Amino acid sequence: MWLAACARYAPLLLVAAGWELAVLSGAISPNFLPRFSAVIETLWELLRSFELPGEVGISLLRQSIGFGLAVVFGVAVGVAMARLRLVDRALRPLVTLCYPVPVVALFPVLVLMVGLDDRLQVIVILLGSILPTIVSSFNAARGVDQYLIWSARNLGTSSRRTLWKIVIPAALPEILSGIRTSLAFSFVLLVAAEQLGADRGIGAFALRAGQNGFYPGMFAAILTIGLMGFAADRIYLALMRWMLRWQEQE
Amino acid sequence: MSTRWNAILSWRPAYSVLILLLAWEAASRLALVNPYFLPPPSILIQRAHHVLLDGSLLKHMAATLWRALAALALCVVVSVPLGVAMARIRVVHWFFDPLISLGFPVPKVALWPIFVLWFGFHDQSKVLLTALACAFPVVSATHLGTQNVDKFVVWSALNLGTGPHRLLWKVVFRAAVPEILTGIQTVLPIAFIVVVLTEMLSGGVGLGAMIMYAGRFADMQTVLIGVIAASLLGFGAIKLFEMMRYRLLIWHQETSAAP
Asked: Could B107 and A184 be called an inter-chain contact, meaning their C-beta atoms sit closer than 8 Å?
């Protein structure tokens, strides 16, 4: 099993070794690309001095609040739009109109409305990831097999029970995979919002390190952001499998 | 998937958009929302007319559009052959599979400082970062699409004496085209978002730069016009691509199934 894992992830080691050798041999200037070992060393230093964990903590706090709110409200609105004609009529044009708007472009407006503090990043993440969540939950809830709903209603299930016992469980796999896309998107928005205007947070740290010519630090921070996105995705995937454990496995 | 997106992005609710615009106008005129942050549409239209006439809006839109299209073209030219190769050649699959699966959930915009260091502040870094951000979904869609081509179609072609090159080009690739197009459709909005973001970060020409510049002078009307122009570009690209998909897949069963 270990051997299989090594064979699978060997290309990553190859890339790291190629990176190290290319810089060591002088083919690429270290001012252009710091050595891989130097990046890892800097990463370790920044971790030990608690500089990086602090920035990561701030970023994760912003991300989890913005994304958490987007999931709660996005799923609620999406399912409500699919089930209630009035809500659909009222919100569909708004969603259609706002869906193609690149939320990061609203940054200057939001800066003046909210001010330059943590709420700004939270609002950018919330606005940017709520629309894909609404659209995917709407599609999921609308795509529920009508016969399931009719059977339940015919057997005397109240409409509230139908929602909780039929519609939501049946739509859950698609809702959850929609949320997975929004999760990846929320990290893009986090980094974007921190690069555009923040003095703390891992995205701001990476940009500042680059501007100050502290390239090993910049690469270490970017590596950390990549690991954050990857870890969040894998944790979510495990959570998703656990929530769908009742599903028949193929 | 794409047909469903179709439903929510269709033109049908045009009349309700009109009601929405009227409500916006009224809310802004009656100061229910702060008219400074959300000026009424009638004033935005006047300003849009102004920036259209002096040519500045079109110049910025053209820059953004050209960068997004260049990035998409670059992404397709690299990602589609890579995806096909991953499905057909074992070594390529071995090398790229862990890189793709690790890199997929990584927010690519985080690489912006590196791209500035390597490629400077101009078109090159913006186009390359956008192409990279778009590459992962296209590679994996192409890979899966090519891998899942109906075995019976391949067997029939082989049985009728099709050579390996003809098989790849005439059968496998064409059967995978719908999935490849779906992959490109999912990255269309991403391309416009990343281009606008990199323009906001670096300045110069482009809608993102125009938005950031206007924001510094607290000129909310121009900011909103820039946002609307960026949305229209993205929306137009999505609509055009849907029409192109219909033309390209006129032979496919999905086209005749659609109303």
From this structure: yes
